[in-house]
Each structure stands twice: as C-alpha cells, then as structure tokens.
C-alpha cells in the first residue's frame, strides 16, 4: 500500500511539473511575440 501511495505522489508531482513547464513555454512564446511587436516599427 505504501508503494502505491509513493507512485501516486510521484505521478502527481510530475503532472504538476509538466503543467508548469507547459505554462512557462506559453509565457515565453507570448513574451517573444511582444518583443517582436515592439521591434516592428509598423505596429507602433
């Protein structure tokens, strides 16, 4: 039973870390797009 609890806990942590990684990747895309827009003189 303890082993199953550990497996569940590890899977939960991995899912959370994966969610954070996906979120930060989306944020990096958004920041990169903002920088591109700021560098483009036609959009300002």
Sum up the structure in keywords.
1 helix, 44 residues, mainly alpha
Descriptive account of the structure:
The mean pLDDT is 86. The chain has one helix at residues 2-39. The chain is rod-shaped, with a radius of gyration of 19 Å. The longest helix is centred in the middle third of the chain and has 38 residues, at 2-39. The chain is 86% helix and 0% strand. It has 44 residues and is an all-alpha fold.
Mean pLDDT: 86
The amount of beta strand, in percent, is under 5%
| Low-confidence spans | none
Coarse structural class: mainly alpha
Number of strands: 0
Rg over CA atoms, rounded to whole Å, is 19 Å
Q: How far is the N terminus from the C terminus?
A: 61 Å
Tally of DSSP helical segments: 1
Give the helix level as a range of percent. Answer: over 70%
What does the main sheet amount to? none
Dominant shape? rod-shaped
Order of helices and strands: H
Sequence-ordered SSE layout with sheet pairings:
Layout: H1 2-39
Q: What's this entry about, in short?
A:
This protein is mainly α and 44 residues long. It is 86% helix and 0% strand. It contains one helix and no strands.
């Amino acid at each position: 039973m303890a082993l199953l609890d550990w497996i569940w806990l590890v899977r939960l942590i991995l899912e959370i870390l994966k969610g954070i990684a996906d979120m930060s990747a989306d944020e990096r895309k958004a920041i990169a797009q903002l920088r591109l827009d700021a560098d483009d003189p036609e959009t300002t």
